[in-house]
Design a protein that fits this description.
It is globular, with a radius of gyration of 18 Å. The longest helix is centred in the C-terminal third of the chain and has 16 residues. Helix 8 packs antiparallel against helix 9. The chain is of the alpha/beta class and 281 residues long. It has 9 helices and 13 strands. It has a single domain, classed as Ribokinase (UDP-N-acetylmuramoyl-L-alanine:D-glutamate ligase). Strands 5-4-1-8-9-10-11-12-13 form a 9-stranded mixed sheet, sandwiched between helices. A 4-stranded mixed sheet has the order 3-2-6-7.
């Protein structure tokens, strides 16, 4: 067991603007609530890890602007080292705009991530990073950055989050370099280019393609964790969902924190599902 694990997260960090219509609201100009908050997969996972007591450094692209400096200040206040943030002159700090129904289901989203799109392997502050027990990458990163990190020989174990069906395919060329992959069933289907009827089948398909450990969710249906330990499947607790935004990030942070501190596979998966349930409520 590692009493003081350290994780470096690479990926998206931006501001989320989430709009949700009031219950019963109809039409294109519906009344509701608009909230602005920190977001991005890598940022959300980093915050979750810090809240679990894990030391964490975030490597992400931001603009050389007030919004980027505000993100850095928020991260430091939350216990996440922002020393790895890369400010890009002339680019604005990213924004993600999500439109949700009153029940929390996502209707549409637009991501403006010009700073992240500008990131290149040569920009990564690898020499300045602290020793780490794990690196986590998210598939928002440009493909050359993903490949460069994956192909390094002298690095910690590499974890990855597939992020979305559209972006998951960027991980296909590096599957055999991944020590762990987090995704949902639809993202696994995008990676494998095959229909997969359950989380366990999806995790086993990823393992067959070289991933050392695959953790796959499937909405309200059982999730699976497949690796050298064999397989574990657990059903998430049922309950009302206030918002779907960030559920996977919460699961990843809790699962990774649990495994780094010695939890058994079933314990770690239960911890991840419980964290997602809390986020949903």
């Amino acid at each position: 067991m590692n009493a003081s694990p350290h994780v470096v997260c690479f990926g998206a960090a931006h501001w989320d603007v989430i709009a949700r219509a009031n219950p019963g609201a109809r039409g294109a100009d519906a009344p509701g609530l608009v909230v602005t908050r920190p977001g991005g997969v890598a940022l959300n996972v980093a915050l979750g890890l810090a809240a679990a007591g894990v030391a964490v450094t975030l490597v992400a692209a931001v603009g050389d602007d007030a919004e980027g400096r505000a993100l850095a200040a928020m991260l430091e206040a939350a216990g996440v080292s922002a020393a790895g943030l890369i400010p890009y002159r002339g680019a604005e700090t990213g924004r993600y705009v999500g439109i949700e129904r009153a029940d929390g289901e996502l209707i549409a989203a637009v991501a403006d991530l010009a700073a992240l799109d500008a990131m290149a392997p040569a920009h990564l502050p690898l020499d300045a990073l602290p020793p780490a027990d794990a690196w986590l990458i998210d598939a928002n990163l440009p493909a050359p950055v993903i490949r460069a990190l994956a192909m390094l020989d002298d690095r910690p174990p590499l974890m990855a989050d597939a992020v979305s069906e559209a972006k998951a395919a960027k991980l296909r060329p590096i599957l055999a370099r991944l020590d762990r992959l987090y995704c949902n069933r639809a993202e696994a289907e995008a990676i494998c280019a095959a229909g997969l009827n359950a989380a366990r089948a999806a995790a086993e398909a990823l393992a067959a393609r070289g991933v050392r450990r695959a953790v796959v969710t499937n909405g309200p249906l059982p999730a699976a964790d497949v690796g050298a330990h064999g397989h574990v499947t657990l059903s998430p607790d049922k309950g009302a969902v206030r918002s779907v935004t960030g559920l996977g990030d919460a699961l990843i942070a809790a699962h990774l924190a649990a495994t780094l501190t010695g939890a058994r596979p079933a314990e770690a998966l239960a911890a991840g599902l419980a964290a997602a349930r809390r986020r949903a409520a």
